[in-house]
Amino acid sequence: MPRIEPTRRAVLGGVLAAPFIAGRAQAQGVTLRSADIHPDGYPTIEGVKHMGRLLQERTGGRIRIQVFHSRQLGDEKDSLEQTRFGVIDMTRVNTAPLNNLVPATLVAGLPFLFRDTAHMQAVMDGPIGEEIGAGTAAHGLVTLCYYDSGARCFYTRARPVRAPEDLKGMKVRVQQSDMWVAVMRAFGANATPLPFGEVYSAMQTGVVDGAENNVPTYFTSRHFEVAKHYAMTEHSLSPEILAMSKRSFDRLPRADQEIVRQAARESVPVMREAWVKLEGDARRQVEAGGAQVVPADKEAFAKLVQPVYDQFVRDDRLRKLVERIRAA
Ligand code: GTR
């Protein structure tokens, strides 16, 4: 997949010029504008497009979705803000950029909390995921569903991070979340929070020594070109979240709201199928592109995370969430 650098200003101008206007929804139908940082074809985009097809079918074309991929509407923090205030209608982001706003979301990204993908899916698709998602409503967002995001692992310029010692003195890009800064500190690295769109050049110019992400993102962002050592630390299964602007949601008649929620739920298996396929492809492609994927001492990393739990899982509510996830 090529790296796409769209003309953001032009697209954004178009979006702002045609907001979702109440009343127009029933009369002429409505196009929900949905943002994503990933390129076209990425599984999250495929999921939202599928949701759009379902909506179109089930409303006789009254409700449609237009996906703005490849950061056309900005990095995740920008698109989240715009979605909260109803400038755009939907956004697909990781749970990380929501952590500072909605503390319950940080639980989903805690290092080494989920045992595996099946555990993560069971938790996020069930009542715990619903409870975490409910917390976004007070901040102008309706959580529609969660998507997979694989396992986050370190990738670096100079040498692979097989064990925590390898991180000593390294500057590692993290997502813009205080919890993620603490994770990196616990592992012994220096955290540099940056928007996703700045990571490629930050690694290329040596502003940071590396970053961490799942293999599909490592591939589609082409980060493997500038940081060739990928180590399977699998330290977090932090899922993705598909959220709708509460303002846009509240403008829909109740029956349409239910159709939207249902279509989002049904997009999840489509996204997951595309994910499994891309994970395999991406691994082959990065290796063909000269990157090396090496095993890592996961146990050694897992031993270091307690300070993150101590610092962020402080109140009773979060503690109980963590307990329930462990018991699930
Ligand atoms: C990806 C995730 C994005 C974003 C990105 C990042 O795995 O899909 O939503 O969070 O990581 O690291 O910024």
Describe the structure.
The chain is of the alpha/beta class and 328 residues long. It folds into two domains: 9-150 and 238-280, Bacterial extracellular solute-binding protein, family 7 (D-Maltodextrin-Binding Protein, domain 2); 154-237 and 282-327, D-Maltodextrin-Binding Protein, domain 2. 45% of the residues lie in helices and 18% in strands. It is built from 15 helices and eleven strands. Strands 2-1-3-10-4 form a five-stranded mixed sheet, with helices on both faces. β1, α3 (43-58) and β2 (63-68) form a beta-alpha-beta unit. α3 runs antiparallel to α12 (254-288) and α8 runs antiparallel to α14. The radius of gyration is 19 Å and the shape is globular. It starts with 7 loop residues before the first helix and ends with a helix. The model is unreliable at 1-19 (pLDDT under 50).
